[in-house]
UniProtKB/TrEMBL annotation:
It holds the Pfam family Glyco_hydro_cc. GO terms for biological process: fungal-type cell wall polysaccharide metabolic process. It comes from the Eukaryota. Residues 3-234 form the Asl1-like glycosyl hydrolase catalytic domain. This is Asl1-like glycosyl hydrolase catalytic domain-containing protein. It comes from Cryphonectria parasitica (strain ATCC 38755 / EP155). Gene3D superfamilies: Glycosidases. GO terms for cellular component: fungal-type cell wall. The lineage of its organism: Eukaryota, Fungi, Dikarya, Ascomycota, Pezizomycotina.
Length: 239
């Protein structure tokens, strides 16, 4: 279930090797930038605006031909500082750009935040499902979660449960970004948080709908330090 969210593919190697539980990766883009072939790459169409869709069909097909089994949709369309498109626009764009691949890959809905602002987060996702009117092909809903270490695993598990209801019957949830980093927790606190979350996602049937998850993210000072896994990077990759 565990994946590597990365910008620099070479850094991912620190989290691989004997005993690693990481099996896939994504980089918020549509080409892997030389991610090791040991991992399944999952391309993303970051947004339907600007140049993002230009080479999408070509890149998505190339990734599928190379072994990609899933495609990720728009990144935080509910967030004014990210993709930032309304649910109706996103539904039409999903039908245009994502539906054509539904017979050859698992398709992700747009990835939403855990914002508390009305109209964002699961409000937006529910609006998108409604706007799709049954015409959007999708197999899972990616969600992002950031909060305090005090809110912790309990809040994340509550959020994914609500997200599952918003996503729809029979759909999986992918947690493609998550971190309890709002209040600068210690590495030990993050490791403890991860152990709780990973046990729930991997072993608790209550959360079997969470089919993939990726901690934020493979970067020097976060999941890796230099050319080695950080203390909680070790927890995420190997525990």
């Amino acid at each position: 279930k565990r994946g590597a969210a990365y910008n620099t593919a070479s850094l991912v190697s620190s989290l691989l090797g004997t005993g690693s539980k990481i099996s896939w990766g994504y980089n918020w883009g549509a080409t892997s930038d030389d991610l090791t072939s040991d991992l399944e790459y999952v391309p993303m169409l970051w947004c339907s605006t600007g140049d993002y869709p230009t080479d999408w069909s070509t890149n998505a097909q190339s990734a599928i031909d190379a072994g990609s089994k899933f495609l990720l949709g728009f990144n935080e369309p509910d967030n004014p500082s990210q993709c930032n498109i309304d649910a109706s626009t996103a539904a039409s764009a999903h039908i245009q750009y994502m539906n054509p691949f539904s017979s050859s890959a698992g398709i992700g809905a747009p990835a939403v935040t855990n914002s508390n602002v009305a109209g964002e987060s699961l409000d937006w996702l529910e609006d998108w499902v409604s706007a799709c009117a049954g015409q959007c092909d999708y197999d899972f809903c990616p969600v992002h979660w950031y909060n305090t270490i005090e809110a912790g695993a309990e809040d994340l598990l509550d959020f994914v449960t609500k997200a599952s209801a918003s996503c729809g019957t029979g759909k999986d949830i992918w947690v493609t970004e998550f971190a309890p980093n709002v209040d600068s927790p210690s590495d030990d606190q993050i490791s403890s948080f991860l152990e709780t979350v990973q046990d729930a996602f991997d072993n608790n049937a209550t959360y079997s709908f969470v089919s993939r998850y990726a901690y934020f993210y493979v970067s020097d000072g976060l999941l890796v330090n230099g050319d080695a896994a950080s203390s909680y990077g070790q927890t995420f990759a190997f525990s």
